[in-house]
Amino acid sequence: MKSALRNAWWVVLGIIIAGCASTPHTEELAKLKADKEHQTRIDELNMQLALQSSASSSEPSAEESYRLGPGDVIEVVVFDVPELSREAQVDGYGRITLPLIGEVPVGGKTVAEAERQIASLYEASYVRNPQVSVLVKEHRSHRVTVMGAVKEPKVYAVQRSVRLVDALAMAGGLAENAGHTIHVMDFVIDDKGKRVRRSLVIDLNDLLNGKGNLNIVLGENAVIHVPEAGVVYVEGAVKKPGAYPLHRDTTVLKAVTMAGGLEFEAEKSSIKVLRSDAGGPVAVVDIDHVREHPKDDFTLEDGDVVVVETNAAKSAFSGFFRGIKGIFGFGYSLNR
Question: Which residue, 262, 254, 264, 267, is CA-closest to 238?
């Protein structure tokens, strides 16, 4: 009996000594991994932003999409009829005045649409097959305010039409804490020549991946807001409980990684996700399973709470070793 107890003691002592020799720095490695993934995401988005901005010349130009409005100064040229050509400023009602045909409503029209309208009016009574060109000589001065999670948030005065991606590039690109949406509010001239307010919420990844016509031409007094990333909370048997930034693809496994990883006594098979508007857990995740099958991981939303409960047996085992450490002064490490 004494021999068996002695052998058991040496086994325990061997485990303790092995734990002392093992220094995996799990917490530091997990934090470095999470930080690297986050910085890589921001770098990739800013690279896409730079590429989109530099490639804008291959898209329909902002000038082609620009709609004329009050304050614009345009030059109207009727080829071979110089007496009909002149500069004109669009008045507060969206009109210009031209020889013979008088007032012409051009507000809300593109340059191409204005050319066709003016040519049609001259052809109706005065000129056979007129060739008309319209050039915007001076854009109405307006401000573009870029705020939120960008590197240089401020008010920019522009004398030309700019696209959304160009404005983000002017602001130095995205900051590290950028979320995944962009809010845009501006004033535009509608197809009836009226000045109306426009409000949009645009998915950042869709914008930079070229989905749809999201790289809009900004209207007057545009305000662009890039919200900071939301937060998720990780609590319980993790190394660093607390609040962590939420990104588009933050899952339970990634949140646990950001929190430094699991403690030894964590219940790995039933990690719960709580949401404020739900009566109970919205998901229960087995961490080992989602490591093997990432597609089964649960994507978190802003304000979600990830709860890692303790396993009673593991907790008792951990407490036993802590007691041994207190008695003999050995260091030890318990890993997942």
Answer: 262
Residue pair 57/209 in contact (Cβ under 8 Å)? The answer is no
Within 132-276, residue ranges assigned H as helices are 164-170, 204-208, 252-258
Using alpha carbons, select from 214, 246, 222 the residue that is nearest to residue 233: 246
What domains are defined for the chain?
Answer: 44-58+140-226 (3.10.560.10), 67-137 (3.30.1950.10), 230-336 (3.10.560.10)
- Say what the pTM is: 0.57
Q: How far apart are CA 217 and CA 62, in angstroms?
A: 6
Cα distance between residue 262 and residue 306, in whole Å: 12
Cα–Cα distance between 20 and 309 in angstroms, integer?
26
Q: Alpha-carbon distance 115 to 77, whole Å?
A: 9
Residues contacting 212, CB < 8 A, separation 6+: 206
The answer to whether 235 touches 305, Cβ cutoff 8 Å, is yes
321 has pLDDT over 70? no
The whole-number pLDDT of residue 209 equals 79
CA 318, CA 333: separation in Å to the nearest integer? 10
Express each pLDDT in 149-164 by its tens digit.
999 999 987 767 788 9
Q: Cβ neighbours of residue 19 under 8 Å, at least 6 residues apart?
A: 321, 330, 331, 332, 333, 334
Read out DSSP for 265-304?
Answer: TB-TT-EEEE-TTSSS-SEEE-HHHHHH-GGGSPBP-TT-
pLDDT at 275 over 60: yes
Q: What pLDDT score was predicted for residue 20?
A: 43
Task: For residue 98, give every residue at least 6 positions away whose Cβ sits within 8 Å of its Cβ, in sequence order, or none.
Answer: 76, 84, 86, 88, 104, 118
